[in-house]
Each structure stands twice: as structure tokens, then as C-alpha cells.
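[Meeting: bench + compute handoff]

Bench side (C.D.) handed over the final construct sequence. Compute side (W.E.) agreed to return the predicted structure before the next meeting so the bench team could plan truncations. Sequence as handed over:
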Amino acid sequence: MKLLVSACLMGVGCRYDGKSNELPQLTELLARHECIPACAEVFGGLPTPRIPAEIRDGRVVNKEGWEVTVEFARGAEEVAKLAKVTGCTAALLKERSPSCGCGQVYDGTFTKTLVEGDGLTAKALKELGLTLYGESQIEELLK
């Protein structure tokens, strides 16, 4: 299957802190699926590293209080275009991220408090009809 994957999960150092979240099962995932890496924050024009951001009252705000909703929305739109033109039917996304979080995201207080909700990219991919998986669900893609 063509699978859009958060680039940080594929070992790309594009997280807010310049690090990655490379999956231990990456080799197996690549053997089973055609993986298309993407990072919405980078696609939206934000630098790496960057100030951490969370969703607060429907807006994306970084830890210094600057609103970055426009950049996150632009990145979400670009990732959705990539998924569409490459024919992806599913996505493996970084959980809890203000871009890729699916089902739960941080609440905007920067206290690691989780609330129900989706990141901007996850919402855009859902609207396209992609099946979304968080990294803790990777085993479902390796069956």
C-alpha cells in the first residue's frame, strides 16, 4: 500500500528539536509498504529546530506565545496534496503532534496534558478519506 509517513518516524531530523522519532520497525515497514515521508511543519515553512507548538482554542501557538496556525495550515494543505498526487490510502503519523496527532493532542498549556482532538494535518488527511494510524498502531500495518 502507498503509505504517507511522518518524516520524523522515518528517521528524518525534522522534529521541533531537530531530532527524529525513528521507528524500530522501519525496515519491516519499508519492506511491506511504499512509504512517502512528509513533515507538515517543514512544508509549511517553519525552521528546524523550532519553538515547540501546541493547539490552544483552535489555534496553533508556540511556547513563546506566537501564533503559527498559518504555517501549520499551509503544511497540512501541502501534505494533503502530496498524499493525493502519490495515491496514498493511509498515513502513519506522529501521535500527539499539533500537525499529525490523531485522536489526542496536547492542550496548549505546555504541561504535557492531553485532550481529545486531531492535529491540522491529520484533519486534512481524514477529509481526503485516508485511514490514519498513530505510531503506537504500527503493528496493524505489519500484519
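W.E. noted at the follow-up: The beta strands are 2-6, 34-38, 53-56, 59-62, 90-93, 102-106, 114-118, 131-134. C.D. will use this when planning the next construct.
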